[in-house]
Amino acid sequence: MSSPVRRIAHLDMDAFYASVELLRYPDLRGHAVVIGGGRNAAPETQPDGTRSYARLRDYVGRGVVTTSTYEARALGVFSAMGMMKAARLAPDAVLLPTDFDAYRRYSGLFKAAVRAFTGQIEDRGIDEIYIDLTDVPGDARDVAARIKAAVKDATGLTCSICVAPNKLLAKIGSELDKPDGLTILTPADIPTRIWPLAARKVNGIGPKAAEKLAAIGIETVGELAEADPGLLQAHFGRNYASWLAEVANGRDERPVVVSSEPKSMSRETTFERDLHPRNDRPVLSEQFTRLCMHVAEDLRRKGYVGRTVGIKLRFDDFHTVTRDLTMTVHTADGAAIRRGATECLKRIPLERRIRLLGVRVSALIPAGEQGDDPAPVQEEFRFDADPDEPAPR
DNA sequence: TCTGGGGTCCTAGGACCC
DNA sequence: TCTGGGGTCCTAGGACCC
To answer: Which pTM value belongs to this model?
Structure first.
């Protein structure tokens, strides 16, 4: 049983948020620009058309870098870096707040442009997708070039695309020629183009796994491919070890998943200062309610109800704990969510200041598909019931 | 200079049931 | 008498990704 060779593309927008901002503020082109930080203000345009931008050096707070332009990256400023550290590396960089509404608009534009080629698209977030091009006629490089042109046309933005036999290779490949890249990978390219790469480049090998690999002398994908299966199993467990061996050889059969239902929705917030569980109780309580109402609003807006409510606390020492509670009925009601969340909160000892508070609802189903009993059903007395048989459901 | 927010998936133990 | 063996649900934590 052999399936035809697939043709899977991964498309990744180049420095997406930053590039969208440069469309708005073309005068920043060529400058080190950093997006992130959270509560900072947007630049003001003067009556004469000039704009004054905030500089990274003036930032105070707990935010992290969301994206940076390639000029800022050259100064060592990357995504997920603390803003205060970024400010030390690039004090003169321009700082812009994140504008998710704008990014979502451009995300919709580029995805619509790709959809003109095929509906076989898997969403991987705001700035990247997988595309199954197996049934799209034409030479791979040609199709990819046409998709890039269509994206550029629809958004004014560049992207990087790799076409490969599977998602694993396509994902790795789209990074190889960034920005504005177009990469084609075949199985024959694995030894030359994949094996020299750091193991960390594989989607699914994160910082922890990379560190553990390094500890047993494995730095590259090629070294991983040569590794003794027994050694891998001893360090990573059977499932992860066999997955590592597969990906190191470029094997991946995962399909492009065109649609999926959300599993959970959550809201969380990091406070500007760590809050004391007793002294700051009013603020905490107010924020707690706000988060519950926010999640409820998200659920209703998207048309879901959930049955499991969970909370997350991060303390001043960064230790994070979660609690959750499964209810008897599904809900999207803020007050019901808050009641569940409060039960969860009672199970956490509060002995340190609180840095982060989060509320999550999971076990989601589309609203309207509730099979929940409208009211508790009374057990019916049956004089003929066999006491050893379970009651009928 | 302490490290965001929104997700998914996996593991593992215990409860509970047949 | 040393006490099976699955399957599923619930809960907590952690790795990872964008």
So the answer is: 0.92
